């Protein structure tokens, strides 16, 4: 199948969740990253597998979690980030709308 992995066993992906075999996409526990992103990554992998317009996985709003007692979490910008030039990102398309849209 020619799907390459990292030394610790994670599947190597491009930004569109495609493996080293261009016919295979991956998401979830076999990929590097956060476990709580798996549902969004799976939806995006399905979108990218069946459409000619693949989208990258956007992790810009994934919270950071520290498993302590009490639990701590962060999300958003660092203090330095708002001082950088502003760009307006395009909203991601809905994978299901694209998959189910009439052709």
Structure in a nutshell:
The chain is mainly alpha-helical.
Question: If you had to describe this structure to a student in words, what would you say it looks like?
Answer:
The protein is 18% helix and 6% strand. The protein has 103 residues and is mainly alpha-helical. The chain has a domain at 1-59. Strands 1-2 form a two-stranded antiparallel sheet.
- Taking the alpha carbons of the first and last residues, their distance comes to 31 Å
Radius of gyration: 16 Å
Number of strands: 2
Largest sheet strand order: 1-2
Shape: globular
The tally of helices reads 2
Keywords:
single chain; 103 residues; mainly alpha; two-stranded antiparallel sheet; 2 helices; disordered C terminus
Q: Could you give the topology of this structure?
A:
Layout (H helix, E strand, L loop, with lengths): L37 H13 L13 E3 L5 E3 L20 H6 L3
Antiparallel strand pairs: 1-2
